[in-house]
Design goal:
By secondary structure, this protein is α/β, with parallel strands linked by helices. The chain has one domain: Uracil-DNA glycosylase-like domain (Uracil-DNA Glycosylase, subunit E, 3-Layer(aba) Sandwich). Helix content is about 45%, strand content about 10%. It is built from 14 helices and seven strands. The protein has helices spanning about 5-10, 15-30, 35-40, 70, 85-95, 115, 120-130, 165-170, 175-185, 215-230, 240-245, 255, 275-280, 285-305, and strands at about 55, 145-150, 155-160, 195-200, 235-240, 260-265, 265-270. It has a seven-stranded mixed beta sheet with strand order 1-6-7-5-3-4-2, sandwiched between helices. Strand 6 and strand 7 form a beta hairpin. Helix 1 packs across helix 2 and helix 1 packs across helix 9 (about 175-185). Bound molecules: uracil.
Length: about 300
């Protein structure tokens, strides 16, 4: 793997890289995989509660209590749009009265799972662009379908578009996107080159709130179809909301990190959302450990395929 020290500088992980590079070289000489946690400044493994989709314990990523920002707040960085406030208040009131916060004038459409599962790229993109499956369509500027190499080995899945993504129609284009690009560079990857990036929901939730379960459910066939078409060897779930929705669990991100899960049969590694990392610099080292785990899983998948 080519070293990209500039990218690691951005991540604040250049010294880790130097050690990883040294270790990679020695691994090529027959050394085992131990020691990564030391390189990433992490103590020995601490495994936690399993989830329905988790398949295998993975090495040595410490599960720690997350600061409340990662546990509760929106992952996206953009500031809430004040125009959205009345809507959110109305939703909160409706929920308080146990009602479903659906737009009163729009009947709930049925989800055409089988139809979506049969679409090719072009038809899928068109279907998403015209989607009115949930009320997120009412306030979006653009749908955010996904971007990158449609035959990529790596698929990165975030939560939902933020303000910039809603304007530009591309995932992760704000500050968090820049950090994500640096993280990819550190792995000798790039947006669009063996990487495909998508979100759990394709429209921006007003005020950057977390997507509602119903919104996720209505968007899921699109993501499932994207995964089926890309056929990635590995999925990286970016942030708590993406991970919980993909893996259908309420488990904390700290308990989901450091293990290999599955989504639609594809191995999934969970890491922090780049927007969260921008606010919490110390956790970049943990994110780097997650990416190293992802890289290991990827390489394992490659060598298994070579041995077939
Ligand atoms: N955060 C996400 O989860 N996805 C985006 O596309 C942008 C920010």
């Amino acid at each position: 793997m080519a070293l990209d020290e500039a990218a690691l500088d951005v991540l604040g992980l250049a010294p880790l890289w130097a050690r990883r590079g040294a270790r990679t070289a020695s691994r090529a000489g027959g050394e085992g995989r131990e020691g990564r946690e030391g390189e990433a400044g992490m103590p020995a493994a601490e495994q936690s509660a399993s989830t329905p989709n988790s398949v295998a314990p993975a090495p040595a990523v410490r599960a720690e209590a997350m600061p409340s920002t990662e546990l509760g707040g929106p992952d996206r960085l953009d500031t809430p749009d004040p125009r959205d406030a009345p809507d959110q208040e109305a939703d909160a009131l409706l929920e308080a009265f146990g009602e479903v916060a659906e737009h009163p004038s729009r009947p709930t459409p049925t989800i055409d799972r089988a139809g979506v599962a049969a679409l090719d790229w072009e038809a899928l993109e068109a279907r998403v662009a015209g989607c009115e499956q949930c009320r997120l369509c009412e306030k979006r500027t653009r749908t955010v379908f996904g971007v990158g190499d449609r035959e990529a080995d790596w698929m990165l899945i975030g939560e939902a578009p933020g303000e910039n993504e809603d304007k530009q129609g591309e995932p992760f284009v704000g500050q968090a996107g820049k950090l994500l690009d640096s993280m990819l560079r550190a792995l000798a990857l790039a947006r669009g080159e063996n990487v495909y990036i998508a979100n759990v929901v394709k429209c921006r939730p007003p005020g950057n709130r977390n997507p509602e379960p119903d919104e996720v459910a209505r968007c899921e066939p699109y993501l499932q179809r994207q995964v089926a078409l890309v056929k990635p060897k590995l999925i990286v779930a970016l942030g708590r909301v993406a991970a919980q929705n993909l893996l259908k669990t309420d488990a904390s991100i700290s308990s989901l990190r450091g293990r290999v899960h599955r989504y639609e049969g594809v191995p999934v590694v969970v890491t922090y959302h780049p927007a969260y990392l921008l606010r919490s610099l110390p956790d970049k080292a943990k994110a780097w450990a997650d990416l190293c785990l992802a890289d290991d899983i990827y390489r394992q998948a490659l060598s298994e395929r070579a041995g077939e």
